[in-house]
């Protein structure tokens, strides 16, 4: 039976006590308002919602949350209806940009009525991560807000579905993505309206380098739909 946690302190204590491969259940939304590391670099932990009453998993906000790290985690929504898995909206401190790192993180089976992962007002780096079988409204996997910069490397976006724009990624801010695979994603999922960007939808700016973009579907722009400054290389 998974340990049930309802706060950041309880989650970090449960991770410290867990063994590699253990599962921890969220009994409430985890609010992160300060610098922290979630996860252990020596073991991989799975995090699941306790039940369908848990609508948000992680919320990061406030001026003191300037350096947040998620590592070696699998966040599995188990296809239970929710709002989001990770929502990041922090203003930084003293005018400095806040930083978020996702390293060796898998986000899967998140059945969101909004966005599985939303990154706003922050600089983020996503390394060796996997977004798989998620569903959302404004994006099937990841939304990059207009005031955010996100660098993604060595990651996969597979079989995510949006009932709006951006089957895998909806970029309204700035995106640098390289050595990634974006496959089998879909915009306009179960919709009759016209939506674009089966793989990536760009209204901000993007540099896409050495990526494989294949088997994605949308009303227009099955692979990439661009309404912003975008370079696609190799």
Structural class: mainly beta
What is the residue-averaged pLDDT?
Answer: 95
Give the number of DSSP strands: 27
Percent of residues in beta strands: over 45%
Q: Helicity, in percent?
A: under 10%
Terminal CA distance reads 47 Å
Question: How is the biggest beta sheet arranged?
Answer: 15 strands, parallel
Count of DSSP helices? Answer: 1
Secondary-structure blueprint:
Blueprint: E1 3-5, H1 8-17, E2 23-26, E3 30-32, E4 36-38, E5 45-49, E6 56-61, E7 67-76, E8 81-82, E9 84-89, E10 99-108, E11 111-112, E12 117-120, E13 123-127, E14 130-132, E15 135-136, E16 142-144, E17 149-153, E18 156-158, E19 161-162, E20 169-171, E21 174-178, E22 181-183, E23 200-202, E24 205-209, E25 212-214, E26 224-226, E27 229-233
Structural description of this entry:
Helix content is 4%, strand content 47%. It has one helix and 27 strands. It has a 15-stranded parallel β-sheet that branches. The protein has an eight-stranded parallel β-sheet with strand order 3-6-9-12-16-20-23-26, with no helix packed on it. A two-stranded parallel ribbon has the order 8-11. Strand 1 (3-5), helix 1 (8-17) and strand 2 (23-26) form a beta-alpha-beta unit. The protein starts with a strand and ends with a strand. The relative contact order is 0.10.
């Amino acid at each position: 039976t998974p340990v049930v946690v309802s706060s950041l302190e309880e989650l970090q204590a449960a991770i410290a006590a867990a063994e590699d491969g253990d599962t921890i259940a969220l009994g409430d939304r985890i609010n992160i308002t300060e610098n922290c590391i979630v996860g252990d670099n020596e073991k991989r932990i799975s995090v699941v919602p306790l039940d369908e009453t848990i609508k948000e998993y992680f919320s990061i906000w406030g001026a003191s949350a300037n350096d947040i790290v998620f590592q070696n985690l699998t966040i599995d929504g188990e296809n239970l209806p929710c709002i989001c898995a990770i929502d990041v909206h922090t203003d930084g401190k003293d005018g400095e940009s806040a930083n978020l790192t996702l390293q060796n993180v898998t986000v899967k089976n998140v059945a969101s009525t909004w966005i599985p992962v939303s990154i706003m007002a922050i600089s983020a780096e996503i390394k060796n991560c996997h977004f798989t079988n998620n569903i959302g409204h404004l994006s099937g996997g990841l939304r990059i807000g207009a005031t955010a910069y996100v660098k993604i490397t060595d990651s996969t976006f597979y079989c995510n579905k949006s009932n709006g724009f951006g089957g895998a990624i909806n970029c309204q801010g700035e995106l640098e993505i390289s050595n990634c695979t974006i496959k089998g994603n879909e915009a306009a999922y179960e919709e009759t309206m016209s939506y674009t960007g089966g793989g990536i939808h760009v209204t901000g700016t993007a540099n896409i380098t050495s990526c494989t973009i294949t088997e994605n579907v949308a009303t227009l722009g099955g692979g990439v739909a661009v309404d912003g400054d975008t370079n696609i290389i190799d």
